[in-house]
Amino acid sequence: xxxxxxxxxxxxxxxxxxxxxxxxxxxxxxxxxQTSSRLAKLEQNxxxxxxxxxxxxxxxxxxxxxxxNGSQPQPAAQxxxxxxxxxxxxxxxxxxxxxxxxxxxxxxxxxxxxxxCSRFHTQTLPKIIKDYVDQGKVAFVYKDYIGVGGNxxxxxxxxxxxxxxxxxxxxxxxxxxxxxxxxxxxxxxxVVSLAEKLSVDMDALNSCxxxxxxxxxxxxxxxxxxxxxxxxxxxxxxGKFKDGEVVGTVVAGAQPYEVFQSILDKGLxxx
Length: 271
Hints:
By secondary structure, this protein is of the alpha+beta class. It has helices spanning about 1-50, 60-70, 75-80, 115-135, 150-180, 190-195, 200-210, 215-225, 255-270, and strands at about 85-90, 95, 105-110, 140-145, 235-240, 245-250. The chain folds into two domains: about 1-50; about 65-270, 3-Layer(aba) Sandwich (Glutaredoxin), CATH 3.40.30. Helix content is about 60%, strand content about 15%. A six-stranded mixed beta sheet has the order 1-6-5-3-4-2, sandwiched between helices.
């Protein structure tokens, strides 16, 4: 009897050891699966961005990697090099908010899903609009710069441009402000829901979106930002405005209102 009891105990110990080893193997396999899935997701995101906008700036790639790793990406102000001098941008009348005769213009390049862009739009831009744009001192232009948001931001930007086609530039700025003030990811459905509240022709809007009518324009605006020296979002070109052209310098990052105030006041004083 004692020998049988010893055998039973040994068998029980063996089974416990087997179960422990199985648990360890399952844990290692799960950890490996999580790591592989994370890497696959990162590669997919990078590929989708590079597919939607060729020659994507390295700064945006770095930002995506930082977000995937759960860390905070550096603001564009820290990513951008020293400002190039004499950047020139030609504008269309349809995209200018404010007086077309203003002596100074701000051209913003932003991504709907950039948190720093949201901060600029919720905290700083309303003051600039009130103190300078509404006073006829400064013209404001918004251009898409697809970066951290990838295809999601691209689709949302196309939808917003389709809405602008119907509602005009002034109400388009209102949509921009609501998009940036919204929590979570900014996608096409959000833009469509905001446009619907403005009583747009939804059939025309959906047709425009389905046709991808403004994809090339959004991509061109992104490339324009890149060649102008924008290395992250938000980025701005601020300078003299005359005959539909802005000639100025790059201001990088979601700077506080006082920084823009100083730049604009100096520009206006030099007129």
